[in-house]
Amino acid sequence: MQIIDGKLISNQIKEEIAEEVKKYVNSGKRPPHLAVIIVGDDGGSQTYVQNKIKACEAVGFKSTHIELPDDTNEEFLLKKVDEFNKDENLDGFIVQLPLPKHISEQKIIEAINPAKDVDGFHPVNIGKMTIGLDGFVPATPLGITELIKRYKIETSGKNVVILGRSNIVGRPISILLSQKNEFGNATVTVCHSRTPNLKDITRQADIIVAAIGIPEFIKADMVKEGVVIIDVGTTRVKSEETKSGWKLKGDVNYEEVAPLSSYITPVPGGVGPMTIASLMQNTLKAYKMNI
């Protein structure tokens, strides 16, 4: 069993980006610029945004961070998105999800200029990804493919089971792993809450991508020996073992499943750091299109 170290790989990617940014800045160009809009005070979102700001500092990006109150109306947020769309010195920006219930997430996503949509959620970028055109791939699926590439995990002809069908992780990664390329060519099954006989399906999987948000859902009796486990889950659960009073749990019961796996991502320290690194990759890509 080999642990897939997302922290290690994300640091490698950030170092590569920092070297590239340094060359641009030394040649007299401005650094890449990423902005984040966060609405409300969701604890998980706040932590995630702070990690993005730290990553920008680490790679030499300029970052802008705007916090709006929970009662911000949709019209005001759309105006802020329009301002960022028109800012020529801003390469990419994200509106942190989830948003308060009175704001339509889809309306906000569609208002973002696809050329600045470094989260990769705009329908234009999703469409490009679907048919294999160059665009911005959603950060978490992009991070997963980077882990697969850098650990040289074979996907061609493999049976991949995706647990979860969200537009942010499940659907995009199912498309990427089934595409005709070096790190695709897999036979992909997407499972969800309505899937019958789930255990029978997961036990046939060579690779499982778990993205359902139910802590420790995947148990030892649901996998075969030698399986590759990509655990996307990050659920906060109460814990008396930590100072904060909570800890992160993945969708996979690590203690049970790890001994059976050939590769496995831990939680934390697996897919999570890769999401941030992928956002930096997308921002650098937007910058190169913009300078």
Write structural notes for this entry.
This protein is of the alpha/beta class and 291 residues long. The chain has 2 domains: 28-113, 3-Layer(aba) Sandwich (Rossmann fold); 139-272, Rossmann fold. Helix content is 40%, strand content 18%. The chain has 10 helices and 11 strands. The strands form 3 sheets. The protein has a 6-stranded parallel beta sheet with strand order 1-11-8-7-5-6. Strands 3-2-4 form a 3-stranded parallel beta sheet. The protein is globular.
Key descriptive features of the protein:
Rossmann fold; 291 residues; 10 helices
Rg is 19 Å
Largest sheet: 6 strands, parallel
Q: Strand order within the widest sheet?
A: 1-11-8-7-5-6
Secondary-structure element series? EHEHEHEHHHEHEHEEEEHEH
Q: Architecture of the largest domain, CATH level 2?
A: 3-Layer(aba) Sandwich
Molecular shape: globular
Strand content is 15-25%
Name of the CATH first level of the largest domain: Alpha Beta
Q: What value does the average pLDDT take?
A: 95
Structural class: alpha/beta
The CATH topology of the largest domain turns out to be Rossmann fold
Name the CATH superfamily assignment of the largest domain. NAD(P)-binding Rossmann-like Domain
Residues in helices, as a percent range: 25-40%
